[in-house]
Every structure is written in C-alpha cells, then in structure tokens.
Amino acid sequence: MNRKFIVTVIGGHKCDEKTRVLAETIGKIIAEEGAVLSCGGLGGIMEAACRGARKAGGLTIGIIPGKDKKIANGFLDIVIPTDMGYSRNTLVAGGGDMVVALPGEFGTLSEICFSLINELPVYGFGTWDIKGINKLDNTDDLRGIIKRNMQKIK
Fold this sequence. Notes:
This protein starts with 5 loop residues before the first strand and ends with a helix. A seven-stranded parallel β-sheet has the order 4-3-2-1-5-6-7, sandwiched between helices. The protein has five helices and seven strands; from the N terminus they run βαβαββαβαββα. It has a domain of about 110 residues: Rossmann fold (3-Layer(aba) Sandwich). The protein is α/β, with parallel strands linked by helices.
C-alpha cells in the first residue's frame, strides 16, 4: 500500500479576497490529485485552502499552535494541537512532501526556511522572494508539479 502524499500549504492567517480565491483553488487541486493537505490549521490562507480541499472531497490536517482544538478552522479533518506557539512552524514545514507558499509574514517566512533546510521542494505564489522558492504564476502548473512529486514516493 502506498502512503498518502502530503502537500503543505503555508501563508498568512489573514488574506485579501484574491488570495483567498487562489488558496481555495490550490486546496481543490491538491484534493483532486489525491494528495492530503496539511497546514497551520488557522484562518486566512489556511482556512481557504482547507475549504477548497474539502469541497473537492480531500483530507485536511491542521497543526495548530495551541492546545485548544476550538481555535482550528472549520474545514479540518484532523487537528493536531501542539501548545508550541510559533515553534510549531517546524512541524508544519517538515510534515509534508512538498510545500506551496502564499503571501504571509514572518511565520510564513520561517516555514519557508524550515522547508528549504529540510530540502523539501517549495513552490510560491506571490510569497517571499528568496533563493530556493520555485515561483509559479498559475495554478495549472501546480497540478503537474503535484503529479510529478507524487511519483517520487511510489
């Protein structure tokens, strides 16, 4: 039996409407390709991506900073409380097989850095401009990237 391929989506806990739609589309693509979506479990980009994945019948995991599961967004199937605050970013960043980064602040930046340190492929939509991020302009490219990365674990 093959294990599930996990795509981690990272980005801000607040976002504008355009970014919300983008995150929801990304979540939908992840689910349609048969991957599991993992994230930090809160609002904004995380919630929008989970919403998209759930609408497409996907499985979602949220690794939350506190211990109270009630702070998690309502589109998570599995909530993992850590009671670690921002230190949980190491778990968010390292728990998947690839990372999709969207706009965010320093928490997102830390997750990008932890992902790169762990030698995970990072694909970015309008996020931090640093070495190691594979920049994408449209979600159609993401579908093929997920498929190719999934083949590496089979």
